[in-house]
Structure formats: C-alpha cells, structure tokens
Amino acid sequence: MDWGYAATPFAAWLVAGCLKFAINSFKSNKPAFGLIGYGGLPSNHSAIVSSTAALVALREGIESPTFGVAVTLAFIVLLDASSLRRQVGRHAEAINSLRGTDSVPLRERMGHTRVEIAAGVALGCAVALAVHWLHKIT
User: Fold this and answer.
1) Which terms are listed as keywords in the entry (predicted)?
2) 122 φ, ψ to 5°?
C-alpha cells in the first residue's frame, strides 16, 4: 500500500501548524495559543494542497490527469486564501469598528498575504519531496 498520498497532506498540515505556532510564539514572546487558526505564516491550506500536487508530480508526472486535478484544486485553495478570505477579514475589521465594545469581536485575521502563501507552497513541496524520498528508501 502507498501511504504517501494520505501521509503527505497530513504531514504538511502538521509541519506548517507547528512552524506557525513557533513563529507566532516568538513574535509575541509567549505561547501563541490564541493565534492558532486562519492567517499567518506559513499558510496551512497552501502547504496541504501544494504537498499533494507536488507528490503527484513526483510520482506520476506532470502529464498525469491526477496532477491536473491536484493543480486545479491547489489553485482554487490558493485563490481563496489570497482574495476571498482576506476580504472576509477586512469586512470583520469594518464591522468590529462599527460595533460597540460590549459585543464579542469578529475574528479579523482570516486570509493570507502572498508571502504567507508562497511560504506554504514551498513548505508543501519540501514535505512532498521528503515523503517521496522516504518512500524510495523503504
């Protein structure tokens, strides 16, 4: 059985999440449990979908129909992270500024910058390479 296709996106999610937690904790000089979630460097979503697309490319080639599907899914997720979710965060900021201080604020940190997305893509490709290499030596 080829465990790589299931393990790769999970590993990318885990590595990206741990890295994001470490970066946020370093920036705030304390454990950043309150900053876990959407937004931040690297993008978990970008790491997950790019790791899958990269693993398909490594194992089946870029001419494979499976690679086409994986790249299509990756583009949808990357566009969503960079545009739609960033706009949702901006709307949350505007709504929070209009609401009083007695209400619970909406989460403003939602989308990703291009740098955060690029970091997620790079991380996802690195995880796919590692999984591909590990699979070859086992």
Assistant:
1) Membrane, Transmembrane, Transmembrane helix
2) -60, -45
Residue with tokens 């999610």: 13
Q: Which amino acid is at 6?
A: A
Q: How many CB atoms lie within 10 A of CB 20?
A: 25
Q: SS3 string of 43-63?
A: CHHHHHHHHHHHHHHHHHCCC
Domain ranges of the chain: 4-137
Give pLDDT tens digits for 88-99: 878 888 888 888
Q: Return d(Cα 83, Cα 116) in angstroms, integer.
A: 13
Which two tokens mark 8? 């790769």
Average pLDDT over residues 32-42: 75
Give dist(CA 112, CA 81) in Å, integer.
6
- pLDDT, one tens digit per residue, over 44-70 is 999 999 999 999 999 999 999 999 999
Side-chain-side CA neighbours of 115 within 13 Å: the count stands at 2
